UniProtKB/TrEMBL annotation, chain A:
This is Uncharacterized protein. It comes from Nannocystis pusilla.
From TrEMBL, chain B:
It comes from Nannocystis pusilla. It is a multi-pass membrane protein. The keyword RNA-binding does not apply. Keywords: Cell outer membrane, Membrane, Receptor, Signal, TonB box, Transmembrane, Transmembrane beta strand, Transport. Belongs to the TonB-dependent receptor family. Residues 48-157 form the TonB-dependent receptor plug domain. Its main location: membrane. One of its GO terms (cellular component) is cell outer membrane. Gene3D superfamilies: TonB-dependent receptor, beta-barrel domain, TonB-dependent receptor, plug domain. It is found in: Cell outer membrane. It holds the Pfam family Plug. The keyword Cytoplasm does not apply. Residues 239-639 form the TonB-dependent receptor-like beta-barrel domain. This is TonB-dependent receptor.
Length: 245, 685
């Protein structure tokens, strides 16, 4: 009897984790005008970011205190015998240009996700080298065009940002329980201001000081002090969300 | 011509004894000097789950290629070799994935061999320097219930006592040949006129392995001599060993690649993984009667080297150079132990002790190219560390049937860590943890005893964890979890159990145990962060039954059931085996015939992210016969030639760069050895 029980128990085969595929789209629903710490109200007419892989992470059994911060989640357990609390368990590999104005609703592809309780999304930045040379984003990482208004003054601006190889947003909020039956669409959202922290994407940029005058738009590009301010903010997770639509 | 077969036939016929009523087993002790009883009668176990494996069971056990394999004789211990023989095994016990030894304390000749801050794994245990022929006894104390159980004993402590029993003393030379082109020679000299502690042993082994990248070689010298045995000055034993080994490291293969036929079941992606291990070990033990008290002190020292090249992830982390990791660990230690016992009263005994060990370490971890050149340096640390403890307790025996042992220990850890990549990074830390321990036994009847135990176990952090997380880029500081501070992980365990022992006929033990860890700290060496995990709880049952129908025959059944869970989520603790069963037979007959059999069943284990391992069953056999000075042995591992996965894991890898890179974990495994056989001959000189 015990032998039979043992043999029956010993017949269980390996079992892969349950996984689903969900479409991922660009979602502009959170991209609304916002005011910076210097009082400039920002309105965007172009918002494009060149990205690489999107990775979706679970927190696993990391202690709740860790959730006070967002997590740097290792891309893999580099030694199979050692347990790591959180992990990348979903991904949408590829090269994308996320366009929150013209491309709102565009499908980026179908992400593959293991069943689990998701808490974060990592977004890898890249340079959009594949774009035609006359595209303002060509060779750069992000492009923002819009207006900044303050005290009745309205200034047009155009910003192109370069991020270093390997730069990424780590831990953009993505709170969703996913199981084998999960369906629906995931939207990648960008916002100009995070209400929780009060931080805004263009914080610290004094558009008036950058105004060349004569109606020429304010230009922000690599090498400018303002570029470094916005580049730093662009890597902060607080301006991104991945949410079910 | 007919004579050799007669004892064999007689021995096989003895199996019919199984049908004989146990009550009729009046043990008639033969006078043959070679006779060795298989009965291990531990008259005063301190906990219900204490298990002692005696010399006869060790000598007849199947699958005894190395001292590592002797750990398999402990009920509820699972070993997984994810390198080749010679690399430290991954160990599991009582719901703990102890990795290479992080939660199982292992002592050899009284010296803890877990390596604090080993670059490859915290508490790394390498038993390659122990020659199985000179292991006299293996004792397991599950749970952290005894005062002398120290760092890493969250799941328990396993002790190897060295020596050669009187019936096996003398000089012998042995040679073993295996179906994996294994050659192993061993010479043991244990002078008959000296104490059982004295021996000299030399071993050399080479093995091609059962598949690619499984080769191993080692050479070992291990000796122990009683230098002094005096009533006034006590006994002085010197143990010394030298060990060198080389081994392959096959890595794990993706299950989907095997299913698609892209890789063989026992295949490898790369054949350049492997390592070297070396150790110089010495210990000087002094035992002395001081009036009514007993003093034992030990001075010990080690030099240690471990080099490893491994790759489990292909090109996932580095698409160009690949993810080979080259680790180098250098370690020198010196330690001193003191134990003193003294009766204070007719019913009361003082138990006191302490220990100190100081280590100097150098740790390297680099990403290496195909030519094993350095691509990037992950770690290059110099560290000094101290482990010390003091303990005191009382053993109270008011009546013959009741024993209570209670006390506490205070463990101290001190680190001084220097980053040699960034000399500005340096950390010092001192940590302390008090641990109460209590165990009690009540003899309910002449053959039945009830045990209760509580204890706090501990695991010290590794030097890298003390140094803390890696440098965080200034402009992303807010986005990164910096991890918890390095601290000692404490566990609280209880055990309630009973043991039934009827003379030398039967012994049965049942223990219910629980272990709770409030917030475990795991150092993740990829992100260089101390990851704090949620509360865990391990609840389980250990059952063991040994029957000795004759003094030369033992039948065993061990069952371990564990539910290891995270308390809040209810998710299983990854990799911990929830079910293990071992059915065994040990036969050491006075005629010279001996045999061992073990049928092991390991239930399916939870992997991270909802995946599960396969379950498996293995049957191992050993047969031996001694005629005159010649001992012949045959060992067959995996008799049914089961196709089994020894190690299974769930992580991401990228081996085929023509396919898209994916960071999503998937099943990987290492094939277990198929049917292998070893024949051996030992000549007693």
């Amino acid at each position: 009897m015990s032998l039979a029980t043992c043999l029956a128990l010993a017949c269980a085969p390996s079992q892969e984790a349950a996984r689903v595929e969900l479409p991922v789209v660009v979602d502009a629903s959170r991209l609304v005008d916002a005011t910076t710490d210097l009082g400039w109200s920002i309105h965007l007419e172009t918002a494009r970011i060149a990205t690489g892989d999107l990775e979706f992470t679970i927190q696993g059994e990391m202690h709740a205190l860790a959730r006070l911060w967002d997590l740097l989640v290792p891309p893999a357990v580099a030694h199979p015998g050692h347990y790591a609390g959180g992990d990348v368990t979903g991904a949408l590999p590829g090269s994308f240009v996320l366009d929150w104005i013209v491309g709102d609703g565009d499908e980026l592809g179908r992400a593959e996700l293991l069943a689990g309780n998701y808490h974060g999304c990592n977004i890898a930045f890249r340079r959009a080298d594949e774009l035609p040379a006359d595209d303002p984003l060509a060779g750069h990482t992000a492009q923002f065009v819009g207006t900044a208004s303050k005290d009745g003054q309205e200034l047009a601006f155009a910003a192109v940002l370069d991020l270093d190889l390997g730069a990424a947003v780590i831990g953009a909020p993505f709170d969703l329980d996913i199981d084998e039956a999960s369906a629906g669409t995931l939207g990648v959202q960008l916002r100009l201001r995070d209400d929780t922290s009060g931080a805004a994407l263009f914080d610290g940029v004094d558009f008036a000081a950058l105004d060349p005058g004569a109606g020429t738009p304010v230009s922000i590009g690599p090498g400018d002090p303002a570029h470094n301010l916005v580049r730093r903010a662009l890597q902060s997770h607080v301006f991104y969300t991945v949410a079910p639509l | 011509m007919r004579r050799p077969s007669e004892p064999l036939l007689r021995a096989f016929a003895l199996l019919a004894v199984l049908a004989a009523p146990a009550g009729a087993a009046a043990h008639d002790v033969p006078k043959d000097r070679r006779y060795a009883t298989v009965v291990v009668s531990d008259r005063s176990p301190r906990t219900a789950s204490q298990r002692t494996v005696g010399p006869a069971e060790i000598a007849a056990s199947p699958r005894r290629r190395s001292a590592d394999d002797l750990l398999r004789l402990i009920p509820g211990v699972l070993l997984i070799q994810h390198g080749a023989e010679g690399k430290g095994q991954q160990m599991f016990m009582r719901g703990f994935d102890a990795a290479h030894g992080a939660d199982i304390e292992v002592k050899v000749a009284g010296v803890t061999v877990n390596e604090l801050s080993n670059i490859h794994g915290q508490g790394y245990v390498d038993l390659g320097f122990v020659i199985p022929e000179v292991v006299r006894r293996v004792t397991a104390n599950k749970g952290p219930f005894l005062l002398d159980q120290g760092n890493f004993a969250n799941a328990g402590t396993i002790r190897f006592d060295l020596g050669v029993e009187p019936d096996a003393r003398g000089s012998r030379v042995g040679y073993e040949f295996g179906s994996t082109l294994r050659h192993r020679g061993v010479f043991v000299h244990a002078p008959k006129n000296m104490a059982k502690e004295t021996f000299f042993a030399v071993e050399a082994m080479t093995d091609k392995g059962f598949a690619a990248a499984r080769a191993a070689r080692r050479a070992t010298f291990l000796g122990q001599i009683r230098l002094l045995d005096s009533k006034t000055h006590g006994a002085l034993d010197l143990t010394a060993g030298v060990y060198a080994a080389r081994f392959d490291a096959p890595g794990a293969v993706r299950a989907d690649d095997v299913a698609a036929g892209r890789v063989d079941f026992a295949g490898v992606y790369r054949d350049d993984g492997g390592g070297r291990s070396g150790r110089l070990f010495t210990a000087l033990r002094h035992q002395l009667d001081l009036g009514a008290g007993k003093l034992e002190q030990r001075l010990h020292g080690q030099l240690r080297a471990l080099d490893l090249v491994e790759d489990f992830t292909g090109y996932l982390l580095d698409p160009l150079a690949g993810d080979r990791r080259n680790q180098r660990h250098r370690f020198a230690s010196l330690g001193y132990q003191l134990e003193y016992r003294r009766p204070l009263h007719r019913t009361l005994e003082l138990l006191a002790g302490g220990a100190w060990q100081g280590d100097v370490l150098r740790l390297h971890d680099v990403r290496a190219s195909v030519r094993h050149e350095v691509v990037s340096r992950n770690w290059d640390l110099g560290a000094g560390q101290h482990q010390a403890h003091a303990r005191a307790g009382l053993r109270w025996r008011p009546v013959d049937r009741f024993v209570l042992e209670a006390g506490a220990r205070l463990d101290l850890m001190a680190y001084n860590v220097r980053d040699r990549i960034d000399p500005d990074r340096r950390a010092r830390k001192v940590l302390a943890l008090p641990s109460p321990r209590i165990n009690a036994s009540v003899r309910l009847a002449p053959f039945a005893t009830l045990f209760l135990a509580y204890g706090r176990g501990l695991r010290a952090p590794e030097a890298r964890a003390v140094l803390g997380g890696g440098a965080t880029p200034e402009d992303t500081a807010l986005d990164r979890y910096r991890g918890g501070p390095a601290r000692i992980v404490a566990s609280d365990s209880v055990e309630v159990g009973t043991r039934f022992q009827h003379r030398e006929l039967v012994s049965a033990g049942l223990s219910l145990f629980g272990t709770w860890i409030d917030r475990e700290l795991v150092f993740d060496h990829v992100s260089a962060v101390n990851i704090e995990l949620n509360r865990t709880r391990r609840l389980g049952v250990d059952f063991d039954l040994a029957v000795w129908p004759r003094r030369w025959l033992q039948l065993r059944q061990d069952v371990s059931l564990v539910q290891a869970r995270f308390v809040d989520s209810g998710a299983p603790v990854p990799l911990a085996p929830p079910f293990m069963s071992a059915t065994g037979l040990t036969l050491v007959h006075p005629s010279g015939f001996r045999a061992g059999a073990r049928f092991l069943v390991v239930g399916s284990r939870a992997l991270p992210h909802g995946a599960r391992t396969s379950a498996y069953a293995l049957l191992d056999l050993s047969l031996g016969y001694r005629v005159g000075p010649l001992q012949l042995d045959l060992q067959i591992d995996n008799v049914t030639n089961a196709r089994w996965k020894e190690g299974e894991y769930h992580f991401a890898s990228w081996w085929d760069r023509s396919e898209p890179r994916s960071t999503i974990p998937t099943l990987h495994f290492l094939a277990g050895p198929p049917l292998t056989a070893r024949i051996g001959a030992t000549l007693w000189l």
